[in-house]
Write a structure and sequence with these properties.
The chain is an alpha/beta fold and 200 residues long. It has helices spanning 3-43, 47-51, 96-109, 129-138, 152-156, 187-198, and strands at residues 67-70, 75-77, 85-91, 117-123, 145-147, 164-168, 174-179.
Amino acid sequence: MSSSCLDQTLALPSRRAFLTLSWLCFSLLVAIFLGACNLAGESTKTPEQSAKPEAKATIGYPAPDFTLLDLNGEPRTLSKERGKVILLNFWATWCTPCRIEMPSMQSLYSVFNRSDFEILTVSSDVEGISVVKPFMDELHLTFPALIDADFQVDDLYQVRSVPATFLIDREGVITHRFFGARMWNDQASNELIRKLIQSN
């Protein structure tokens, strides 16, 4: 073999190695540059933006605020009830477990003062007041019924079935969440509400 052939044979792997190494270096530089851009983007957030929690209906988090109309057409805002323990119940007139549950809620409602405890019920009936008011009158329910015919608050609280109930303490934080009907006029429920009232 001639010396020129030998030189070419030896040069081919060297060229390949050089091209491979060059490509790896270029890729590494691009990755570092993109990473620096991402870090720079993250650092533009203010501490307030970074620390601000998203509204979520989760135990231990503030209850998402909302405003709905009651049966008198008056707006009721959850945050304006701050300072009270709130039983927030999601229901509908066509829901049989709701019909069974709600008289026990009325019994619980009569036990505590309005300055300490409030029940807010959110109806998802699309017909609104026309079906909710007769239902409330029939069962002699006196706690506020709010109309959520377009499901905005149901979606806000991620309610997928009724009844569903959230307990909210005096500071506006969700402490308990119940799915399905519950008898609220038993001793355990009374003690639970009383404990929440006394804890703040």
